[in-house]
Amino acid sequence: MSKKSDNKIKAEENSAKDKLEDAIDEAIEEVEESESSKEDAEDNSDFGLSETELLKEEIQKEKDKFLRLFAEFENYKRRTSKERLELFKTANQEVMTAMLPVLDDFDRALNEIRKTEDKNLLQGVELINNKFRETLKNKGLEPMNVEEGETFDADIHEAITQIPAPSEDLKGKIVDVVERGYKLGERIIRYPKVVTGK
Q: What pLDDT is stored for residue 46 in this prediction?
């Protein structure tokens, strides 16, 4: 976890503690006020409120305050736990982003090794490549499958250039994929770089 997120969580916890302490202080003040209002209860009997009715009202007010404070604290706990889960899911995003050029190099190396006749070398590099990709996949990294002929979508593709379409059906569509895109969980950490037809 980064220091910034730790500091943010600590600040929110301190804020919740401060609110809780303030609410407790207010409750103590109200209890003290209710004791002084007992003396005034005799005066209120002229208005038709007995001492027990006044105490019941005070208890109801305190109960309402407690329930509101408890609900607020539960919301705070739920929000912070959700933020922590999100942080854990994307905590390794920097490492994954740093590994993407290595994956690209593996793809290039495999393409070149396939041109040679050394099948043992090809098999060894493929084993390492598969193991590396499987490890990253277990940590949440998934390649985005983009193929030629798909419709270009600016929300999930990054167009680096536009060329005349080789055929009429490729106009406005993806002609070539220059660099593969990747997702970490649901978040896109690198958009696929594509060439579109015009």
A: 46
